[in-house]
Amino acid sequence: MAIFLKANWENIIMVNYEIDPEILRPFLPKGVTIDLFDGKAYISLVGFMFKKTKIFNIPIPRFGTFEEINLRFYVKREEGYFVKRGVVFINETIPYPLVAWVANWLYKEHYTVVPTKHFFSKFESTQQLQFEWLLNKKWNSIFVETETKSKDMEPNSFEEFIYQHYYGYTKVNENATEEYRLQHPRWKVFPVTNHAINCDFSTMYGNDFSVLNHTQPKAVFVADGSAVKIEWKRNRLKFGYERN
């Protein structure tokens, strides 16, 4: 299988909010359903580092390392007895227009471009990580403090549910969905000891998500990350008549 994109994803913060599934339904691609954990729907504000990015194994000079901030929710698609667990992105934010343009043009993704920055500090027993992005002349941010020793995710845990989704689904239109697959090993997580979230959800993601401005996260996780591969092949799922 040809690999479209290779990159290292590092220090993957997931800020997880319980959300009314009715808010998500307008963004739900055809052919998938909302994936629930203990009967509840979740959406995640995510920050992580993209490093050593390659497209078709060719390094991207100057643009290969950057911060990404995204908002995503969780879905599944059943094929017989096999369940494909995946994610749908409301928006993905990066600092480079060229990278965003390529992703949007090739795959009809929802990338936007704003200035971003981050810092990382590691001490003997703790580490601190912060991602920031500039919106309407105001810096938004995700800050976490964790222990320095990582641990395995517990089977059937909330952490496992959040991180172990290996498919992506894109709503092309009302009658077509694109499906793609990610490859990466099972990640380890760092116990979080402190966090602070400063995000204007309504301005960043639209009024549908303004409720998150007043919602406390259910949990905040940090994974170590790894090399990640995204396959070139995308399955076009068609339902009914698809207009060009």
TrEMBL record:
UniProt xrefs under InterPro entries: DUF2071
Q: Name one Pfam family in it.
A: DUF2071
- At the top level, the lineage of the source is Bacteria
> Which PANTHER family does the UniProt record give?
DUF2071 DOMAIN-CONTAINING PROTEIN, DUF2071 FAMILY PROTEIN
Task: Please identify the protein, giving its name as recorded.
Answer: DUF2071 domain-containing protein
Species this chain originates from: Flavobacterium buctense
